[in-house]
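Methods — Computational structure assignment.
A single polypeptide chain was analysed. Its primary sequence is given first, followed by the predicted tertiary structure written as structure tokens.
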Amino acid sequence: MSDQKNQPVATGLQREAARRKAQDHFTAADRRETEVRQEIARQQAATAAQMAKLRALRLAKEEADRIAAANAPPAKPRKKKSI
């Protein structure tokens, strides 16, 4: 109880300054959070684009391999070695 008597009473200006300081802190935190979310979204978009590119390349290669295999002459059967 004696501690409360020694504490100065905050004036209206002090309260307003403390409120402004807290609001600035939360505003900065919100801004950082927004920037982080935007960076994550950019990274996800880049990853998705890279995956789409690699998938297209893989499908093109598989199609080329399929066409090459269809046009290739049939393999000759191997002869068994006699002992």
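Note: Residues 12-71 form the longest helix (60 residues).
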